[in-house]
Structure formats: structure tokens, C-alpha cells
Amino acid sequence: MTTSTASPSGTYSPFWALWVVFATLSALQATYLVNDFSERSQVMASKRDVDKLMPEVEKINRATESMGKGLLDLANAGSGEAKKIAAEMQIKVNTPVTVPRPK
Questions:
Q1: How far is CA 20 from each of CA 14, 27, 33, rounded to the nearest angstrom?
Q2: What whole-number distance in Å separates Cα of residue 76 and Cα of residue 82?
Q3: Is 96 helix (H, G, I), strand (E, B) or coil?
């Protein structure tokens, strides 16, 4: 009676499965990191574009504010049409913000 105790040729350690999972997760994290950097560069490019437009936006804002103040001045001087426009557009003067002094 011959009994052969041959070991199976395909025996693998359970750590190989963990290694494959770790390698897969590492690859995924690397792609996420690359995407984060590309999104960051897109955000920086958008910020530069907005910074280029800010002087024009401030100019338009100042002009609009000046026209609103002029319209309110006319309304306070007794112009019925200016009062009607100011009421229709809900134009009003906001009180300036006061910043408390540090103690």
C-alpha cells in the first residue's frame, strides 16, 4: 500500500489576496490624487480669469451705485418719476456698517 502525500502545487498564502487588494486600492488612490491636482489647476485658472474681470466688475458696480444715488437724490428733490422708479425697483440707501472698536 503506497500512500503518496504529494502537496498540492497551487497552494498560495492568504497574504497574496491582501496584496492584490492593497495594490488595487493604491492605484485607485493615485488616480484620485491626479484628478485632485488637475481640478486644483482648473480652479486656479478660473480664479485668474475672475481676477482679470474684477476691475471691470468694480467699475460697473460703482456706476450702478452712482446712478442709484442720483436717482434717490432726484426722488428726494421731488421728482415724481424718480420716486416711482425708486419704489418700483426697491432702491434704498443702506446704512453703513459700523465696526466696533477693539477693547
A1: 10, 11, 20
A2: 9
A3: coil
Give the separation between CA 67 and CA 73, rounded to whole angstroms: 10
Low pLDDT (below 50) residues in the chain: none
- Find, among 61, 99, 97, the residue nearest to 69 by Cα: 61
Q: What is the pLDDT of residue 80?
A: 85
Beta carbons within 8 Å of 82's beta carbon, 6+ residues apart = 71, 72, 74, 75
Predicted TM-score of the model (pTM): 0.48
Helix then strand then coil, in percent of the chain rounded to 5, is 70, 0, 30
Q: How far is CA 52 from CA 47, 55, 59, 60, in A?
A: 9, 7, 13, 14
Unique residue bearing C-alpha cell 426697491: 90
